[in-house]
Amino acid sequence: MPELPEVEVTRCRLERELLGARVKQVVLRVAKLRLPVPEELATVLPGLVVRGIERRGKYLLFDCGAGWLLIHLGMTGFLRLLHGSSPPGKHDHLDVIFSDGQLLRFYDPRKFGIVDWFSGSPQQHPLLADIGPEPLTGEFDGNYLFEASRGRKVAVKQFIMNSAVVAGVGNIYANEALFRAGIRPDRTVGSMTVKECSRLAAVIRKVLETSISEGNACMVAEETVAYYPQEFKVYGRGGKACVGCAGPLDEIRLGGRSTVFCSTCQK
User: Fold this and answer.
1) Does residue 253 lie in a domain region?
2) Catalytic-labelled residue, pool 13, 55, 58, 187
3) Which of 10, 76, 171, 189 qualifies as a FRET site for 4, CA 20 to 30 Å off?
4) 3: annotated active-site residue
């Protein structure tokens, strides 16, 4: 699944290319992805101008003045920005065609993505209203994490992956952040000290910022979502040598997700 850095890299690239672009036509090829796709997109979007592109967690928000186009990439989706016409493939479900000849195409083979249209404040949209603070802002820090975790018995990895606690921290970067912070993923989050919460909040920000920075530097021309890790130290490396102590990394299932950690380096 595309995680926050990949979605932010996508947002940066699309905003650079599409800011000020006027929608000419919308082509819908499916009636439903994870949720029904609004039929009115084909009639309300043409003529509108992209005034900005924002991100909330893993959701992309296209400000079109009269309303917002919301897109979530789901498990396997990505947005492709093309120049000129191009025949759609089997899993190309939505085209937004612009007056300058550009074409924004949403590809999603598993159909777990979301496309929606709404007016009003994004903060009041049902999919966005309960999302926690953005990890790259001052709202998310050690004090916030400490207070939010008091009395909670859930594992720390599951806690930081809860979008109501913090926006957009997915499985890959949760594994990486916990390793770099020296905290076991299966530890009860309520047992963490203020110092540990501060260290973890700072590391979460750092790993996300680094991946975003490298993603923007290595941005490809067509497929706008790809993983740009600085280098995975634990994710996908179960059983391999820990980069810290050289011992074998443990791999368990936690909350149904693959979780890799070092039982020596993480406490």
Assistant:
1) no
2) 58
3) 189
4) yes
Which residue among 80, 152, 206, 257 is the active-site one?
A: 257
Q: Are 63 and 50 in contact (CB under 8 A)?
A: yes
Average pLDDT, the chain: 93
**Is 130 within the bounds of a domain?**
no
Q: Which of 3, 8, 176, 196 is catalytic?
A: 3
Alpha-helical (H) ranges within the chain are: 4-18, 41-44, 142-149, 156-160, 171-181, 194-217
Tell which of 90, 124, 158 closes a domain. Answer: 124
Tens of pLDDT, residue by residue over 24-33, are 999 999 999 9
Tell me the CATH number at 217.
1.10.8.50
Catalytic site residue 58? yes
Cα 138 from Cα 227, distance rounded (Å): 25
What SS3 class is residue 224? coil
pTM above 0.70, yes or no: yes
Give φ, ψ of 143 to 5 degrees: -65, -45
Q: Give residue 176's domain range.
A: 142-233
The tokens describing 2, both together, are: 């595309």
How many domains, the chain? 2
Residue 265 belongs to some domain of the structure: no
